[in-house]
Amino acid sequence: MENLDTVTAIITLVFSGFTAAGALVAALQLPQMKKQSIASTEQTQAATLQLEQMKKETVLSVDRYRRKNTVEIMIEWCNAISKETSFAEAIVEDFDEKQCESLYRRINLVLTKILKKNCV
Fold it and tell me: Does residue 120 fall inside a structural domain?
């Protein structure tokens, strides 16, 4: 029985040594793990800043594109205006709701006598 107690004591002592060695290794690795954690946090912050900058640049790019297209459309519209279209616009401004609906649906319009006089 004494041999069994001795073996048990030796095994306990060996495993206690392994546990202490493991704790020592873990303790020695803590500073390195802390450095890695800080580096990871800094990388995350840098990536977040880059994404925010990309978002701002994308918004600015879309705004520039929208303004450019708006200017091009306005130039095209201004070039398309003529005396005839201006007169047609003046007539349409006096349309009632039914006449506007007919124009929109491209149905024959019924013009009032006043409009007929202005057109002739």
Answer: yes
Show the beta-strand stretches assigned E in 1-120.
none
Q: What domain range includes position 86?
A: 81-120
Q: List pLDDT tens digits, range 26-82.
A: 677 778 878 887 888 888 898 899 999 999 999 999 888 888 888 888 888 777 777
Residue 115 buriedness (CB in 10 A; 0-12 / 13-18 / 19+): middle
Q: Are the C-beta atoms of residues 119 and 95 closer than 8 Å to each other?
A: no
The DSSP code for 109 is P
How many domains are there within the chain?
Answer: 1
